[in-house]
Amino acid sequence: MFSTPTVDGDLVYIGSCAGIFYALEARSGKVRWSYDIRKDGSQNSFHGNPLVTKDLILVGTDGGTKGHIYAFEKNTGKAAWKYEATSESGFGRGVGTNIVRLGERVYGVALGDELVCLDLRTGRLNWSFRKPFSEQAWSTAPATSGNRVYFGAINGTMYGLDAASGAVIWSRDLDARISTSPVIVGNDLYVGTAGHFIYRLRPEKGEVISKLELETIPVGPLTPAGGMLLTMLNPRGGAGTSKRLVCIDPSRMKVIWSQGSTSDWTMRQPLVLSSTVLAGNEAGELAAFRLNDGTAQWTRQFKGTIRSIGNSANVLYVGTLQGTVYAYDTAGL
């Protein structure tokens, strides 16, 4: 399981790489409902995190010759709508990024590096944006703020687009392929590249304020927490495994601390709970670090490669590559 267990009320939502999306009862793990995406074509994976609204839960699928963005009714699991992504890359078709929302519009990036804007209620395509590219790499999710959507393309260009129309307001060529999802922190826009840099940009016009060179490629979603910015580093540039977990002070563009693991980190992004950073590795070890200085706090062992962690109250929901989800009580930590 790669998508993060997402808790809403008494249910935990998660997609399995066996092609099934589940709603599990948070207290017991009992399946409330499930949806098999394989009945809609050759697709079997959920690589992005679900987006929860009042009545719907949205998630992208990929992994074959088909791929969709689904909107499931939260209580029943019925597909309220599904949008088929038709662009493709060497990885096939589908939407492997997080789905993000701005008002009554939702955004995702399809394989083939196509940014799509859909109507939240109907799934109707409002607009799409795509530029030609040659490198076969995994696309990154967009970010939204105000009336803008920010999209980092595989070709190394960062775009600021009008959220309603998709019109390009500005574009900025960076040093290499965009390797992380962009994020707004304070008044600035941050994004990582395969050239080993984190860039700080002005969201209004895309001007580069500063950049920070890292030891290797930042990957996955950039994670803001407590005035810091967390990222994973992977010399291969993919989001599957990583060598280092790095904490950056974004105001000074300085690395505060860096942590390795006994085996590769296998989460796309860490989970932050208050002042604690959690990350899981290939050997099933869940490690906790202090946010402000990276001091190791504790570790716990699970069976299976840890892919993602969700949380609610005093419970962690740990998803593994082998398909098991663990509910772990943190009250005594």
Note the topology:
Blueprint: E1 6-8, E2 11-15, E3 20-25, E4 31-36, E5 51-52, E6 56-60, E7 62-64, E8 68-73, E9 79-84, E10 88-89, E11 92-94, E12 100-102, E13 105-110, E14 114-119, E15 125-130, E16 143-145, E17 148-152, E18 157-162, E19 168-173, E20 180-181, E21 183-185, E22 188-192, E23 197-201, E24 208-213, E25 218-225, E26 228-233, E27 244-249, E28 254-259, E29 271-273, E30 276-280, E31 285-290, E32 296-301, E33 306-312, E34 315-320, E35 325-329
Parallel strand pairs: 20-25
Antiparallel strand pairs: 1-2, 2-3, 3-4, 5-6, 6-8, 7-11, 8-9, 10-11, 12-13, 13-14, 14-15, 16-17, 17-18, 18-19, 21-22, 22-23, 23-24, 25-26, 26-27, 27-28, 29-30, 30-31, 31-32, 33-34, 34-35
CATH class category of the largest domain? Mainly Beta
Q: Indicate the CATH topology of the largest domain.
A: Methylamine Dehydrogenase, Chain H
Write out the CATH superfamily name of the largest domain. Answer: YVTN repeat-like/Quinoprotein amine dehydrogenase
Helix content, binned percent = under 10%
Q: Determine the number of helices (DSSP H or I, runs of at least 4 residues).
A: 0
Tell me the domain tally.
Answer: 2
Any guess at the CATH architecture of the largest domain? 7 Propeller
The CA-CA distance between the termini, in Å, is: 25 Å
Low-confidence stretches: none
Round the Cα radius of gyration to an integer and report it: 19 Å
User: Which strands sit side by side, in order, in the main sheet?
Assistant: 20-25-26-27-28
Describe the sheet with the most strands.
5 strands, mixed
**Beta-strand content:** over 45%
Q: What structural class is derived from the secondary structure elements?
A: mainly beta
The strand count comes to 35
From the spread of the alpha carbons, the general shape counts as globular
The residue-averaged pLDDT reads 93
